Amino acid sequence: MADRGASALSLPDDWPARPDPILALNRMGSFDWDLDTGLMHMDAQAHDIFDVRPDEYDDRPETLAKRVPPDESRRLDTAVSQALKDGSENYGAYFRIRRRDGSLRWTHTQGYIRRDHTGRPRRIIGIVRDATRELAESDARSDEAAQDEARRQQTSVVELTTAALAHARTVQDVIDVLKDTHGLTHLGATSLVMGLVEAGRIRLVAEGPSDSFVPGTRITRIDEPYPMSEAVRTLGPCFIESPEEFAERYPILWPHITGLNITSAAYLPLIVQARPIGAIGLLYSDRRGFTPEERNILVALGSSIAQSLQRAMFYEQEMDLAQGLQQAMLPRTIPSVPGADVAVRYRAATIGGSVGRDIGGDWYDLIPLPGGRVGAVIGDVQGHDTHAAAVMGQLRIVLRAYAAEGHTPATVMARASVFLHELDTDRSATCLYAEADLSTGVLQMVRAGHIDPLVRHTDGSCRRITVPGGLPLGLSAEFGRLDYPVSTVELDPGETLLLCTDGLVEQPGADLDDGMRTLTALVDTGPDDVWHLADRLIDVAAERGGDDDVALLLLRRRGPDSPRSGQRLQRHLAPGDPAALAEARHMIRTAVGVWGVRERADDIELVADELITNALMHTEGSAIVTLRTLTGSERRLRVEVEDSSSALPRRREAGESGVSGRGLLLVELLTDVWGVEARGGGKAVWCEFVVPGQEEGP
Fold first, then answer.
1. How far is it, in rounded angstroms, from Cα 412 to Cα 679?
2. How far apart are CA 356 and CA 345, in angstroms?
3. Cβ–Cβ contacts within 10 Å for residue 205, how many?
């Protein structure tokens, strides 16, 4: 602010301007600065603000240099010069002055620039005032606003974390939420540790950053000198505000974590219903100490974590119970079936995260039956709860029992429906039962409200098998409609039967037929191996999600190495018909000759005659004689005699006359294997002979 050296004659006529009394009342000083002369007049209030006496100031701005520090003077000159150059009408600036006692005071100035008709600046009239208190209050407001913002951010983190924890279903879910970017790391924590109380000890379930595990802390006693133990023991938070305090209070733990650069820590007990279930520790590497607000927020957050953790622990306990019940109801193992490859899968539903809904009534079963046959079952009890699983378990058992008794597929289904109706439950069930003779490939199937099966052919193509069906189990008995039509199809070697529940087929927004077409396409493009195909299908169901469980059974008839049916003859024998018995004997003698098994002709005829005679003598009913050959690794001839009696044959000692009691002894001696199969309403006694050569003609 150099003196321009102008004469007093150039001063404006009204110079200096008269100060407004109102300015003095508001503790503001005024100045009038003539830019031509460089003189700047100040009133008494301005003198007081700059802390200069009237005799110390000669109207020259440079005289104020002893009161305005150089840095402040340069900043003020820059603001004024810029305003003069850019045509501004006014300017304002804050700057500091140094008073006589050496203290610095903030001052504010506001100048109004007067220009002539050419735009040249000629004069500045302005005010000055002490702004120290104003800026102090502004700083205080800024600090308060910053604190409020920090509190809002912390509260926001608490709210976000609490909201995320509401969706955590397992303990690991809780840990993942806390370690997520929206979790506790937003509060500045470097890492966290968490332990759960189990049998009077604390088991570590989250151990902070990698390579930070402290040996010997996986499981600790509550009375040990660790901060987590202290929080559980005292039911109060443990705040550690410096490394020195950490080292002093926990000398056993501190040497193991010095490499983490921990500067402070907060260990919070996780308390539910006045009982500690665990503790969580937050470790910081860039702060010391905790304000009262921060402590309150962390304690509140610990309470929210505890509630979520308890809910997760309850869920896992009930999940274990539900899964255990489900596994107990399903078959523990699937038996090995000669002539077939079998794969089964089960996937539980997950419905809305609700505990106890991950169990349902879907089931599968494989039932070995006499004569190399096998029963395949797929079913679905209404509902997704433990009641549905319990009903499913009972229904599975009775279906297995009825099938093993030898009842026809239609009878098995009808009796199961009656059983479910008499069980006095409000549940119905859909079911599909397929009885397969793997030697012939013949499938007999009945359907009770269930979805149709699929068959995959040897070329990989897949088709839906339409099976006429009856009402779901339980409903058919209620409405008195126990008729279940039997459909018969043949499964060729290498072909696969697929049975599943609707959870594998139904998709949101699509009807059942669309789902069946999608499933058929998946099977078309799936792997040949039944186990890999089952994995593929269940993985697709898992990726799709859904609110229904899935049961799946695949049965693949093996190729040419498995036994298959050759020639087959059958004769019905009425009781008291000697001609029918003679015809049966002739049929057997002729077949043995034509099929090229004359080497064992006598044995076969003798055993067959014995079985037929016993059936007609001891059952007082008709009999059915079936004679057929089976080919595979060895050629066999099989004789079956079926009657209407459920009484099993038993060995007796020969009588005194020596003409009876030797029937079963002959069967054992002359056959390679024999047995008895229960059939619906009766039984079948069968025997097999290993025979050489190839079969000839029909």
1. 11
2. 21
3. 18
